[in-house]
């Protein structure tokens, strides 16, 4: 060793700190936040237009009233689906039986599908009664707001079905089920606000 050689002290590599939140969960959370703003805009427009209705008559004359009793039943199916997913999510995070998690996911998916199907039946009846996108501002607002929610619900049901398949194969990560759950919780929890503002 020559006189000019410098010996550097050994410094171990610093450990990477664990992420507080995974990339998938963070991405889904940001997406849901943007969607909340979208629906807040829809509801604001609906409330303003309803407040400016001629003679404060709402819905407008010659337009059918929305079947809030039937939709209440649909709403209970959606809320039950959210509760089942919450149970499945917690069980999966605690590494409980994949079979039980899969069964809960399957039930949540079926109830969510029942909600969308029943809403479709309701739409068909309303169209038959003359409520369409072009029949009035009332109709266009209704189908825009509730249709946007239905589109989110259909996509979320597809994601739930994907999660169920992954659980059946014992190949669903904690990050994946948490991301799926956040999306479905959004679909479930935004609905009561839409229901009370649009239907009642």
How are the secondary structure elements laid out?
Blueprint: H1 23-51, H2 68-93, H3 98-128, H4 137-168, H5 174-199
Describe what you observe in this structure:
The protein has a single domain, classed as Four Helix Bundle (Hemerythrin (Met), subunit A) (Up-down Bundle), CATH 1.20.120.80. The longest helix has 32 residues, at 137-168. The protein is built from five helices and no strands. It is mainly α.
Based on the coordinates given, report the CATH architecture.
Up-down Bundle
Q: Proportion of β residues?
A: under 5%
Task: Give helix and strand order, one letter per element, not per position.
Answer: HHHHH
- What is the name of the CATH superfamily? Cytochrome c oxidase, subunit III, four-helix bundle
Provide the gyration radius in Å: 24 Å
Instruction: Calculate the mean pLDDT score and round it.
Output: 89
Helix content: over 70%
Q: Oligomerization state of this entry?
A: single chain
Distance between the termini: 87 Å
DSSP E strands, number: 0
Q: Sheet with the most strands?
A: none
Overall morphology = elongated
Q: What is this entry, summarized?
A:
The chain has 200 residues and is an all-alpha fold. The chain contains 5 helices and no strands.
């Amino acid at each position: 060793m020559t006189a000019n050689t410098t010996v550097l002290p050994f410094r171990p590599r610093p450990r990477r700190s664990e992420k507080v939140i995974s990339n998938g969960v963070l991405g889904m959370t940001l997406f849901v936040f943007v969607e909340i703003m979208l629906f807040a805009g829809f509801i604001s427009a609906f409330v303003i237009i309803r407040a400016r209705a001629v003679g404060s008559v709402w819905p407008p004359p010659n337009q059918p009233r929305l079947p809030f009793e039937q939709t209440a039943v649909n709403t209970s199916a959606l809320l039950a689906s959210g509760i089942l997913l919450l149970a499945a999510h917690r069980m999966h995070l605690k590494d409980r039986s994949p079979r039980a998690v899969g069964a809960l996911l399957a039930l949540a998916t079926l109830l969510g599908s029942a909600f969308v199907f029943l809403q479709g039946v309701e739409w068909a009846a309303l169209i038959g009664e003359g409520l369409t996108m072009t029949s009035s501002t009332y109709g266009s607002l209704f189908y825009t707001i509730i249709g946007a929610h239905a589109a989110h619900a259909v996509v979320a049901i597809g994601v739930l079905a994907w999660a169920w398949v992954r659980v059946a194969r014992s190949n669903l990560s904690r990050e994946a089920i948490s991301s799926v759950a956040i999306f479905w919780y959004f679909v479930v929890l935004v609905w009561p606000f839409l229901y009370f503002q649009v239907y009642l």
